[in-house]
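Let's practice the habit of predicting before peeking. Look at the sequence and jot down your guess about where helices and strands might fall. Then scroll down.
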Amino acid sequence: MARNGTLILFCGKMGAGKSTAAVNINNERNGILISEDKWLASLYPDQITTFEDYIRFSGLLKPLLKTHVQNILKTGANVIMDFPANTINQRKWFVSLCAEANAKYELIYLKASNELCLKQIAQRRIEQPSRAKFDTEQVFNHVTKYFDEPNEIAAENLTVIERCE
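Done guessing? Here is the structure:
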């Protein structure tokens, strides 16, 4: 019987380094990287200007991606999803996706202080000026209110990486 792939997810506050970690892990594991930011920018160019816009358009991606990701996992390939798994409901969605595909998942939690995240967000505004409108301290503070540390996920599926300055 063929072995299904593993879904690798990321949890961490805005600016913790989830996208960078996703690229690095994809390079290490030779998986298929799916970036929410790239999909949203391609499908909804210049339409995401508020956090509420992000929530709405991100929600529209999930039904499309669910079957797509499950089909990839069933081929035995690993899928690295550069999507936030920052809330209990987001993580439940990913876990159910894996359960339905009979695939494993790994959650990587990039634990970083607010100060480090804000420092990295400021650097990202310089490196990616197109994100400057959304990557602000105000948006960070708003988004962080919804962040849930991953304590409900089974320990064998969770890797915590402490990010230091």
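How did you do? The two ends are 46 Å apart (CA to CA).
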